[in-house]
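Work Package 4 report. The design task specified in the project plan requires that, given a folded chain encoded as structure tokens, an amino acid be chosen for each position. We show below one input record used in the internal validation round.
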């Protein structure tokens, strides 16, 4: 029987209450992301800033903050290609790590929805099994999103002199308008891609398939359930919008703003992301005819 969106949310919430461990992949991903970010900063300093200090015989302890920032800026601009490659390496490392945890989270949500319970070991099992395919799927989707840069081409071609435009973009209103319109089209294109591919990652893990098949299956599933998918998507966007409004309202209240930011981030990692993953997973499982665990039926039978 197909569940209504309200039932998906209600039963998904019950699943989450019984399986708080589904937050573990998102918490672990957060800490791993901090480690990768720290390693990226360390690598930048080691490969680009330290050589610049040695080259100019500068003692960093004797430099004021402004001079140090200026030196870092020069190191960045003088080695732009090297910095780009460094960022790319760590970005791909993060994407692979994130793919492992997302595959694990979807797998845990699948087990919790079908069996009633899940364990942290399920995260490692599903993550190891699907991380590589999830990684390549995300790269393919990212490349599709980047292809939208074509919307900026007319605006870029309309610029007569790049130096004049960069120094005084306000007086290049025609080119600026075309570029702005291109950015708007690119944003709409990325939004369309993200909505159309809502179920690709779930299809990949649940069906245990390859990236191409996952994309085809995910898109086909979305198109077969457009109205309900968009309804659930709109509800989740509304929740995010409400949280954003609360945060903006507290921004002028001093210390409350900082406390809210910490609280909001913690809630997002430990509650919102696991819940959203469970809801999308349950919706996919239900609409593909899987037998789902019912806590109510279990209680009545016992």
């Amino acid at each position: 029987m197909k569940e209504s969106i309200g039932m998906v949310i209600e039963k998904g919430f019950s699943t989450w209450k019984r399986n708080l461990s589904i937050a573990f992949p998102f918490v672990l991903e957060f800490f791993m992301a901090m480690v990768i970010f720290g390693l990226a900063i360390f690598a930048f300093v080691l490969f680009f800033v330290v050589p610049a200090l040695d080259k100019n015989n500068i003692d960093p302890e004797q430099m004021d903050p402004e001079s140090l920032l200026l030196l870092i800026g020069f190191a960045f601009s003088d080695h732009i290609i090297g910095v780009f490659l460094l960022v790319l390496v760590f970005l791909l490392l993060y994407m692979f790590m994130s793919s492992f945890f997302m595959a694990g989270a979807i797998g845990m949500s699948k087990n919790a929805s079908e069996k009633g319970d899940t364990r942290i070991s399920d995260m490692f099992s599903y993550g190891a099994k699907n991380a590589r395919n999830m990684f390549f799927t995300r790269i393919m989707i990212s490349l599709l999103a980047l292809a939208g840069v074509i919307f900026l081409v007319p605006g870029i071609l309309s610029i007569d002199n790049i130096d004049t435009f960069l120094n005084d973009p306000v007086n290049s209103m025609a080119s600026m308008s075309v570029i702005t319109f291109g950015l708007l089209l690119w944003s709409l294109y990325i939004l369309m891609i993200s909505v159309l591919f809502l179920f690709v990652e779930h299809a990949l893990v649940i069906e245990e398939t390859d990236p191409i098949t996952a994309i085809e299956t995910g898109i086909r599933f979305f198109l077969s359930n457009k109205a309900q998918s968009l309804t659930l998507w709109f509800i989740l966007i509304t929740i995010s919008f409400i949280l954003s409004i609360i945060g903006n309202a507290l921004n002028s209240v001093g210390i409350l703003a900082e406390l809210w930011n910490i609280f909001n981030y913690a809630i997002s990692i430990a509650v919102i992301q696991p819940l959203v993953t469970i809801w999308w997973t349950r919706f996919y499982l239900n609409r593909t005819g899987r037998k789902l665990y019912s806590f109510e039926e279990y209680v009545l039978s016992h």
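Residues 298-302 have pLDDT under 50 and may be disordered. Validation will be extended to a larger panel in the next phase.
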